[in-house]
Amino acid sequence: MRIPSFPTIVRTFYTLSNATSRALPQHRALLPFTRGTVLKSMPTIPFLGSLFSSAASRDMSFPVQKSDDEWQAVLNKEQFRVLREKGTESPFTGEYDKHMPSSGVYTCAACEAPLYKATHKFKSGCGWPAYFDSIPGAVTRHTDRTFGMARTEIVCSNCGGHLGHVFKGEGYPTPTDERHCVNSVSLRFAEGDGEEKSKV
Predict the structure, then answer these.
(1) Which of 39, 76, 165, 179 has the greatest number of CB atoms lying within 10 Å of its CB?
(2) CB 101 within 8 A of CB 149
(3) Distance of CA 48 to CAs 53, 78, 98, 148, Å?
(4) How far apart are CA 184 and CA 182, in angstroms?
(5) Which residues are catalytically annotated?
(6) What are phi and psi of 101, to 5 degrees?
(7) Which residues contact 84 (CB under 8 A, 6 or more apart)?
(8) Which residues of the chain have a pLDDT value below 50?
(9) pTM for this one?
């Protein structure tokens, strides 16, 4: 019998705990026993975060610099959890997962810097908005070692807000063979070309 790797066990536990937190409230008999809030992303749990997280993007310098208190004043609770604490929204729940406009720009929810054109978006079926490319210079990549594995994290180049991760070589019929898997809560959509400057 093959024993699963530790990162696989952690991902499975996280997926099941989030699925359970969404499924239980539907059963009225179990309502007194359900959780009142959705669990935070695994990397923000102190014990696991200290063992498996990477502070690479926190060590980088970005044009927009704000304290946590300043970010909390302009972001809602979920936006702060994802953009500043590197959380992840549940799959298939985001506003932009199935949003497929023919034109327009997706901007950073924190600083409104243009990140992706509508023409970069494609249907991946992964549960989060997927883009095959970004606006040049808008997204910064670095290695993220959460969950004990190496992935490519993407952050807003203007404010350092966590967007999601990039996956390569999955075989999607796109020009780059990349999937920028982005949290909807990290984005806003605007009509137009997005050439205007960020508000922050």
Answers:
(1) 179
(2) no
(3) 8, 21, 32, 10
(4) 6
(5) 181
(6) -75, 160
(7) 68, 71, 75, 110, 161, 162
(8) 19-57, 197-199
(9) 0.69
